[in-house]
């Protein structure tokens, strides 16, 4: 018996360690119970912080860095607080309308301040790429999109679909680089679509070039009369519950020789992970797929290449967002958040601090971003 086989056999019977999908019923139930206790502890801390508990940022980071190091390296089964995190669901997108309400339809002025809003780089709610030498958030976001252009193999004249196009940052930047590229943006957030519609009327924006088309709706309902040379999706698949169904839908939009690039938050642990706090306050039904999840779904689209982007990049991005968020309090505290602003501010500080620390844990080797290049099977 090899060492690998022996460890696999041990995993079946031992709670907490290893792959949840191969455990015996007793080991599985034991791990789920312990995961619920870990989640309850995190939620207790989170709710106390939201209600006004004063914790210095340095102590906050130390608590999460210490605990997450243990979870990543030794107890990954405790990072999935709910059973639904571990498997595909029946729906392509879960809690999508609720997600728009609590996350993407927030006051635009606040999001502009936190994420940045420049002449070509519009607000972009995904990681920047800092390892290429960027020194500012704007540069890091440019470098990240340049990386997407290179890996997807975008050429002038391509007809591209952006599934979940945010505020149009990626299409705007790519349109600025390629004078004959055409873009279609698909987005469910009404607030983000309103931002893009304003840009489509602004002659200084590349979204007004006539080469950008916007569809407000979700993937479940989307239908297009033409097929696309390239499809890209940045960040959206953390909110997609069924990879197999989503890939079938995207494949129906893609030319026979077309390519898809998916960029998601990912974890190098045996199973997917999530957070009770972010599920309640930030990303309803959000999950981080494990690094092998996308390649394992190859019925309609197959992965032909993939890359892991170290979590230090997201750590630096979240740190920049937190600094900008803190610096903008006087400008954004009077906006309408459908709750007391003091509570909103503490929810978001907890979220930004927590995720920023988690991505930096273990030097970013466990929690980062995955990029996957796919074609028709």
- The domain count comes to 2
CATH architecture heading of the largest domain: 3-Layer(aba) Sandwich
Broad shape: globular
Strand content: 15-25%
Q: Biggest sheet, open or closed, and with what strands and sense? A: 8 strands, mixed
Question: Which regions are unreliable across 5 or more consecutive residues at pLDDT < 50?
Answer: none
Measured distance between first and last alpha carbons: 36 Å
* Overall pLDDT metric: 93
Q: Helix-strand pattern, N to C?
A: HHHHHHEHEHEEHEHEHEHHHE
Could you give the count of β-strands? Answer: 8
What is the percent of helical residues? 40-55%
Name of the level-1 CATH class of the largest domain: Alpha Beta
Going by CATH, the homologous superfamily of the largest domain would be: Vaccinia Virus protein VP39
Query: What is the CATH third-level topology name of the largest domain?
Result: Rossmann fold
Q: How would you classify the helix and strand content by structural class?
A: alpha/beta
Protein name: Cyclopropane-fatty-acyl-phospholipid synthase
InterPro entries: CFA/CMAS (IPR050723), SAM-dependent_MTases_sf (IPR029063)
Organism: Prochlorothrix hollandica PCC 9006 = CALU 1027
Pfam family, one: CMAS
Index terms:
15% strand; alpha/beta; Rossmann fold; single chain; globular; Cyclopropane-fatty-acyl-phospholipid synthase; eight-stranded mixed β-sheet
């Amino acid at each position: 018996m090899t060492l690998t086989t022996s460890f696999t056999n041990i995993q079946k019977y031992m709670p907490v360690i290893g792959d949840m999908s191969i455990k015996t019923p007793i080991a599985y139930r034991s791990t789920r119970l312990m995961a619920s206790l870990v989640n309850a502890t995190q939620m207790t801390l989170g709710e106390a912080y939201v209600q006004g508990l004063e914790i210095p940022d340095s102590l906050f980071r130390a608590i999460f860095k210490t605990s997450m190091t243990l979870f990543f390296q030794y107890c990954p089964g405790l990072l999935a607080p709910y059973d639904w995190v571990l498997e595909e669901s029946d729906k392509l997108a879960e809690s999508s309308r609720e997600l728009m309400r609590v996350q993407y339809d927030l006051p635009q002025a606040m999001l502009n301040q936190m994420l940045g809003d420049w002449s070509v780089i519009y607000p972009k709610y995904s990681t920047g790429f800092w390892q290429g030498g960027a020194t500012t958030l704007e540069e890091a976001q440019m470098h990240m999109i340049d990386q997407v252009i290179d890996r997807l193999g975008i050429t002038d004249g391509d007809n591209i679909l952006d599934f979940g196009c945010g505020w149009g940052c990626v299409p705007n930047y790519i349109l600025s680089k390629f004078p004959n590229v055409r873009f279609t943006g698909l987005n469910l957030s009404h607030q983000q679509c309103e931002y893009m519609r304003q840009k489509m009327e602004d002659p200084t924006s590349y979204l007004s070039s006539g080469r950008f088309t916007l569809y407000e709706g979700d993937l479940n309902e989307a239908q297009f009369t033409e097929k696309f040379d390239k499809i890209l999706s940045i960040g959206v698949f953390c909110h997609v519950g069924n990879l197999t169904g989503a890939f079938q839908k995207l494949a129906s939009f893609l030319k026979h020789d077309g390519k898809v690039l998916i960029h998601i938050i990912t974890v190098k642990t045996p199973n997917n992970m999530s957070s009770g706090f972010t599920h309640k306050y930030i990303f309803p039904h959000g999950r981080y797929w494990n690094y092998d999840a996308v390649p394992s779904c190859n019925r309609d689209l197959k992965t032909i290449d993939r890359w892991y982007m170290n979590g230090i990049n997201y750590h630096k991005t979240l740190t920049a967002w937190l600094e900008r968020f803190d610096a903008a309090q006087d400008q954004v505290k009077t906006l309408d958040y459908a709750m007391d602003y003091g509570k909103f501010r503490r929810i978001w500080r907890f979220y930004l601090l927590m995720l920023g620390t988690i991505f930096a844990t273990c030097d970013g080797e466990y929690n980062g971003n995955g990029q996957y290049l796919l074609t028709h099977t």
